[in-house]
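Human: You know discrete backbone vocabularies at least as well as I do. Show me how you would write down a chain together with its backbone fold. No explanation is needed for now; the record alone will do.

Assistant:
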Amino acid sequence: MSSARQVVVVSGNPRPGSRTSTIATRLAAELGTPQVIELGELAPEFFAADSVAIDAARKSVAEADVLVVATPSYKGSFTGLLKVFLDGFGTGALAGRDVHPVVLAASPAHVGSTTEHLQVVLSELGLQVVPGLALTEEDLVRVDALIAEVAADER
């Protein structure tokens, strides 16, 4: 894949630099040159009347060629922080872009429900959901091979 593609990672983990973010960034680096948006760093800005940082993050997402949207599973779904960020886009606003979801959960049941909930919202935004990573803690020992598989599908 050409590194000229603009790949944006949106990490919905409230903790910047999390495993979720690290895995998503590693996947994005296989797809192009990534820009990483850590929503945990932007959290204080979300409910400000006007936030230059949030506007800039949404602009980066809107201009991306490919997105990698990552979240840990919180109570069987994706994080509220990610939901608030995605709710800032209108229905179909991100049409024409591929998105690789990355989900990390403690159990297979939570991976499935979190992935399903996230895919519904991503599709509502007009994104084409393509293979990503749906991981349990046990999968972390083979994450490099799983990233390589997803990246190979893109080539």
Residues 6-154 form a domain with the Rossmann fold fold (CATH 3.40.50.360). Residues 132 and 149 are 10 Å apart (CA to CA).
